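Continuing from yesterday's entry. The apo prediction looked reasonable, so today I'm repeating it with manganese (II) ion included to see how the binding region is handled. Same sequence as before; SMILES copied from the compound registry.
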Amino acid sequence: MDMKVCDLGDIEIADPEVDFVKVRRQVATLPNMPILLGGDHSVTIPILQGQRERYKDLRLGVLWVDAHPDLCDFFDGSKLSHANTMRRALEFGIETHDVCMVGLRSWEDQEIDLIENGGIHVYTAADVAERGIRNVADSVYNILNDCDAVHISLDIDCLDPSVAPGTGIPEFGGLTSREALTLIKGMQDLPLVGLDVVEIAPPLDPSEATVFAGLKIIMEYIAVIARKKQGKS
Ligand SMILES: [Mn+2]
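Holo prediction written out below.
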């Protein structure tokens, strides 16, 4: 089908305090659906801010696919690090009950209360292994289907390091590549409004398997959008 994908280039992040504003503005004002590539997961702070602005009167849900919840208030002396992303998002108006996290398997002490009692829907990597990805994807779909707009943020470390080793903090016991693709496809009928794929680190990825994993995930997302436009399942 006729679908155009356009590369809008790079945004240099030298100082998050200053440069995140550029990312937020871009996302808030783009005429079309953004697909963004990190960078570390901190870049999703202005991405979600931009989406919040763009869909300001609507209920914005987030599918967060990651080994980590990134719910730290402070991390490494910063409020804008890769471990603070979802915590900041909750401060600018994304509601905990509209967030689904899939693939979690590592967290900090300061994150546990929010994970257990904050109202976020959490599906650990172990849950996926035990329940099966179809079952988890159906649950996530049913929750996010109450939202008017849904953004997907995918940290490549959601995948097991055996398939995607080229990332800053590889965590054993992750999702399989098939599980990740099935999860994305399972969101097809949601009101999807954007995707970011983060934490791919080419210097740590000599085989380039991780780069290709990210590429496949983006292509699956584009295929989902194309099928949606065609009204196919
Ligand atoms: Mn992570």
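Comparison notes:
- The longest helix spans residues 209-230.
- Residues 28-230 form a domain with the Arginase; Chain A fold (CATH 3.40.800.10).
Will overlay with the apo model tomorrow.
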